[in-house]
Design a protein that fits this description.
The protein is mainly beta.
Length: about 120
């Protein structure tokens, strides 16, 4: 299955449909944009970000536009807001395995883990 992501809005108890996300490859401090996408109604990308054939061992970054998402949902955020974009840096060691990177998020907190 390669690489995938899923975002759950813990404030509203729903998938984060419509959230903008960017995927990067990273090398040290240098990041290269791979793609930008919008999460579907289930809070997921429409397909894998990489399938197993194209996923390479290395480091990656997913950047989630948390503030933009909550503003679009009508949430009144303070200025400056507590979370703007959440960047998750992670490594892929085994390209024959599925790397699922979920994000649970509210305007004030987030958590992640390696899912299945």
């Amino acid at each position: 299955m390669g690489l995938s992501t899923h975002v759950l809005d813990t404030m509203h108890g729903t998938p984060a449909a419509g959230m903008e996300v960017a995927l990067y490859t990273t090398e040290g401090e240098h990041a290269t944009l791979v793609k930008r996408f919008t999460l579907n109604d289930d809070g997921r990308s429409d397909g894998p970000l990489y399938d197993n054939a194209s996923l390479k061992a290395g480091t990656y970054r997913l950047v989630f536009d948390v503030a933009g998402y909550f503003k679009a949902r009508g949430v009144q955020l303070p200025q400056p807001n507590f979370l703007n974009r959440v960047a998750l840096d992670f490594g892929v060691a085994h390209t024959d395995q599925h790397y699922h990177v979920p994000l649970l998020v509210s305007p004030w907190s987030y958590s992640t883990y390696r899912g299945s």
